[in-house]
Structure formats: C-alpha cells, structure tokens
Batch of 2 targets.
Target 1
Amino acid sequence: MITIDIDKETCIKCSKCVKVCPAHILTQEDPKAEIGLRNVQTCIACGHCVAVCPTDSVIHSEFPAQKVHVLNREILPTPEQVMELCRARRSNRAFLSSPVPEEYLQQIVEAGHLAPTASNGQEVSFTLVTKPELLKQIADITINTFEKTVKKITNPFINPFINLIVPGAKEAVPTLSAVIAKHRGGADAILRGAKAVLFIHTPISSNFGRQDANLAYQNASLMAESLGVSQFYTGYVCIAVDMDKKRKLAKLLNIEGTIHAGMALSMPAFKFPKYIDRKDLDLTIF
Ligand SMILES: Cc1cc2nc3c(=O)[nH]c(=O)nc-3n(C[C@H](O)[C@H](O)[C@H](O)COP(=O)(O)O)c2cc1C
C-alpha cells in the first residue's frame, strides 16, 4: 500500500507538488498553508511530487532516497541537436556481420524503459533476442504465417467474402507473396540479417499496451541512432503476430502478453551522410 507523508519541518509550502500531482492527492487550502493529503489510494506512483520538491519533503513509500536522482540539465541536448537526431534516425538495413555490443543493447532497452505509459502503468516488458537460431525461427514463423494467410485468402470458397471479414485482405496478397518469394529465394526478407531483435510487449489486459510499447520503441530507436546502431521496425513480424491465433512467436520466446512492436538491431555497414525531406508537413492549426 502506498503511503505519502509531508515533512512539515522542511516543507517550504511552495505548492509545486500540489500543482504537478495528476491525481490531485496533494492539497493546499491557501498559498502559505501546509500541504495536505487526500485519497492517497488513488496515487499512480508517477513520482512527480518527489521529483519536483526542492527540499525533499515529500516522503513517498515508492520512492526512497536511493530512487531519487538529481537531473543534470546542463547535458540535455539542444533543440538543434534533438532535431538533427530526428533527421539522422533512419531505418538503415545495410548491416555489418559483427554483433551489437552488449552495453549498447542495454542502453537501448533502458531508453525504451524510460518512456511514459498510460496512467503510469509501467507494464511494458522487453525481450531481446541475439541467438542466431532464434532469429532464424522468428523469420521462419513470420513467413509460415504469411503463407498460411495467403492460402486462406486465395481459397476460392473464402475469397469472395474475405474482404468483408478482414477489410483489405485481398489487397495484401501481392505484398505478402513477394516477401514470401524473396525469403524462400534465400534472402532474409524479414530481419535482413540483423544480429538482434528487441520485442516490446505488455500484459494482454493492458488498455494502452500498443501505445505504451510504441512510445518505448521510439525512445529506444533514438538511443540506437545516437549510439550509432542501426534499427528498423519489424513490421512484418508484427503483422504475422497479429495474424497468428496460435501465438507461435510468443510461445517460442515465452512471452505471455501481447507483442506490439519489434526492433531489428545491427551495426551499420555505413551511415547516411544526408537526410531528405519528408512529404510536405500536413498541419492544421486552430
Ligand atoms: C510500423 C512500421 C513498420 C515497419 N515495418 C518494416 C519492416 O517490416 N521491414 C523493414 O525493413 N522496414 C520496416 N519499417 C521501416 C519503414 O519502411 C521506414 O520507417 C520508412 O521507409 C521510412 O524510413 P526511415 O525509417 O529511414 O525514416 C517499418 C516502419 C514502421 C513505422
């Protein structure tokens, strides 16, 4: 059970904790009044009250002193650096055959783990695969699922109705067939020879699992770019995960929840010296 106390000796009643608490648990009747508490049981343990307090006066059972750290704002990247990082992040699929250093993989996962989650649920889990035989199995499961799906869609008894059951299914056949043909022809059309794959998953019961996982993905992908590690989103694997009711990939990797995102990772054979413009920005302002 979460407990919160205010150290009345040290609290300077600045009300910052009151202003940042998303659950309105911390209260202050008047500008210089003591900080009060209500409905502590609704605390989502985001830690804002603890992190904002200038005098360490919020005593929160979830955040003992060893979990509270001083942020060094001096080393934050400038807006120009953040923008350049966004420009530099590409899905580079030209890989070296060397593995991704373990400390890089750790930092990539750590960055993903720092991403925000709905209601501060923090239910996102990560599964990192570097074993070559498992990487091969991931690609094979994906291709086998695609083959089964194409067979179903093109079945003359099902085909006339398939778009009513799964909108857009017929249109997916040429793309899926091309990927299957490429893979069966000997190319790794799914993981492109990547040396690691990071799967991001949440419990089946998570209401915002997909959103939480993809926010984690983007944090992790920006960290990968800043470390000089190439990544791309394993969209094909994720489509196959959604198609496969038997959950073969989840079973292979002992994942009990839902896999929402996957990141193929490898060291790049070279880097992109340029960036190109995206389509024109579509922005509406009211
Ligand atoms: C949801 C999603 C799924 C993707 N799936 C794949 C994939 O399965 N294989 C692949 O090589 N690239 C995949 N990509 C990478 C996109 O092709 C790539 O992001 C896009 O071409 C833009 O290039 P950039 O990432 O270098 O800016 C995927 C990207 C996203 C966002």
Target 2
Amino acid sequence: MTSAYIHIPFCKHICYYCDFNKVFLKGQPVESYIDLLLREIELTMKSSKMQTIETIYIGGGTPTSLSAKQLERLLKGIRNLLPFIEGNEFTIEANPGDLTAKKLSVIKEYGVNRISLGVQTFDNELLRKIGRRHTAEDVVKTLDILQNKDFKNI
Ligand code: SF4
C-alpha cells in the first residue's frame, strides 16, 4: 500500500509538551511553503513509479491553522497531483476550536473524510497546565459542528 503523509508545520500557539516539528505561525512564509510543498509533490510523482496513493494524511503542526483560502490551494493542489481514489481514507489533523464552517466546507469539497482531533484530555485544568488553548467544552462544540457537516470518521 502506498500512502502520502503531508506535513504542515505551523501552529497558532505552541503547547508546552510538544515535541513535533512545528513553528509559531505568525510571520511565517506560509504561501511559499504551500508552493514548494506542491512543487515537491509534483517532482516526486514525476520521478516515481507510483500509480495510486491509497491514503492521504495531512498532519502537523496544525494544518487547520491555515486560512480557508490557503487550505483550498493546498487541497486543490494535492488532489490535482496525487492519483487518489475518491472515497479512500483522507485525513486532516485539527485542533478543537480551529474549525470554521468555511474551512470545513473546503475540507469536505476536496474529499477529506477523516478528522483527527487533538483532544489530549477532557480535564480543563490539565489542558491549561500543558498549554492547550481549548477547553473540554470546545471539543464538544467542535464534534457537534463536524457531525452537522456530516463527517462520520472523527
Ligand atoms: S498544536 Fe499540536 S503540533 Fe502545535 S504545538 Fe500544540 S501539540 Fe504541538
């Protein structure tokens, strides 16, 4: 099976415990990163013998820290460049509280069908101590929004 992992290394804030490859979003050349990421995908596909990508996973960082417009450019590029079978597993990572209706419409339009939600804990005091910006209540709200938008794999 051939799968693609695509990394978006930007976060709106940095959690205290985090060991992932990420940088603070503000002031970063996000547009250039998307351009070069798509170019790298294009060159990789040209030089490889891959016929089909079975699953796609966009992780981070926080992919949903991108604006709806940036997400659209990224997802459109990915779908144009990767030979992906519609309906296969296509995941994006998201933080509770980050997902607007506009971002979710874009995500759905380009075939993302699985949301990996960074909950960590439902203990608000612990969330505060580890430097998360959301609360347990934000998780529940985000789940409601996702279910209203008909995301079944969360
Ligand atoms: S949002 Fe995720 S990737 Fe970003 S700093 Fe927090 S744990 Fe790390």
